[in-house]
């Protein structure tokens, strides 16, 4: 019997924790970064096996196909956050995130690049776009995140995006390990990972500065931390579903 992976990191801050004097910006930033580092899904057994070259082609295809549901939901959740943002400057900068994924024109953007990754691992584009093989656990986790961004206050919605602080490192790891362990994947299919390294650095730094500036009380800070922990759990749950929930096209 397979033992479920142990979730790393400290528990998410709970709203019942005492509210006292807010941490200074440097201390709060350190809290956010440590939470993201300790709970990020790079430590999930599926990602660990991926980066060691231990996944079969079918396992990689299952991940790419299911992760596509998350990729297509990114501009949707960003549009929901955009509608909450105060001020033109912040809205203009957040609009860029939607354009990064949807592209400025057909054939551009992160969603298109993920489809090309799917083709590079042997998936049919139309099958990915249909969503027929998205696992229930993946759909539940991703749709829960979209609903969180729809309903949460703007500070928490923005704070949930701070997994971007860790994204450049995991993308760099994939760029280094995929050509070694999965040489059957066409190199052009890795374009999504390359693009996300600079985008993640820019987006993570931008959102971090905004959250630090807007979290004026300790209660605000704790709610931001809780939102970030929730997003880490979404990514972790997505991989749980892929690891244990079957492969695209398999019987449910």
Overall mean confidence score, pLDDT: 91
Helix-strand pattern, N to C? Answer: HHHHHHHHHHH
Number of strands: 0
Proportion in β-strands? under 5%
Number of helices: 11
Question: pLDDT under 50 segments (min length 5)?
Answer: 1-6, 9-17, 248-252
Query: Approximately how much helix is present in the residues?
Result: 55-70%
Structural class: mainly alpha
The first-to-last residue Cα distance is 19 Å
Protein model, in words:
By secondary structure, the protein is mainly alpha-helical. Helices cover 67% and strands 0% of the residues. The protein is built from 11 helices and no strands. It is globular, with a radius of gyration of 18 Å.
Provide the descriptors you would attach to this structure in a database record.
252 residues
Topology readout:
Layout: H1 25-39, H2 45-52, H3 57-82, H4 88-102, H5 110-120, H6 125-130, H7 136-151, H8 154-159, H9 167-181, H10 191-214, H11 218-244
Helix pairs in contact: 1-11, 3-4, 3-5, 3-7, 3-11, 5-10, 7-11, 9-10
Short description:
Helices cover 67% and strands 0% of the residues.
């Amino acid at each position: 019997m397979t033992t479920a992976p142990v979730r790393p990191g400290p528990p998410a801050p709970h709203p019942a924790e005492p509210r006292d004097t807010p941490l200074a910006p440097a201390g709060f930033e350190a809290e956010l970064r440590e939470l993201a580092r300790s709970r990020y899904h790079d430590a999930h057994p599926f990602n660990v096996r991926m980066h060691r070259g231990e996944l079969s082609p079918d396992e990689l295809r299952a991940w790419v196909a299911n992760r596509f549901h998350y990729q297509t939901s990114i501009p949707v959740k960003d549009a929901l956050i955009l509608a909450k943002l105060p001020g033109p400057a912040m809205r203009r900068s957040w609009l860029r995130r939607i354009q990064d994924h949807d592209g400025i024109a057909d054939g551009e953007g992160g969603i298109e690049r993920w489809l090309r990754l799917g083709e590079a691992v042997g998936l049919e584009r139309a099958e990915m776009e249909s969503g027929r093989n998205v696992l229930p656990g993946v759909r539940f986790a991703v749709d829960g995140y979209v609903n969180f961004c729809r309903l949460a206050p703007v500070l928490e919605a923005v704070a949930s995006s701070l997994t971007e602080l860790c994204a450049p490192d995991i993308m760099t790891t994939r760029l280094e390990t995929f050509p070694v362990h999965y040489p059957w994947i066409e190199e052009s299919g890795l374009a999504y990972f390359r693009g996300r390294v600079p985008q993640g650095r820019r987006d993570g730094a931008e959102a971090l500065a905004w959250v630090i500036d807007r979290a004026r009380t300790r209660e605000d800070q704790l709610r931001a931390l809780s939102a970030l922990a929730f997003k880490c759990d979404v990514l972790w749950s997505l991989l749980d579903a892929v690891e244990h929930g079957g492969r695209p096209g398999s019987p449910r």
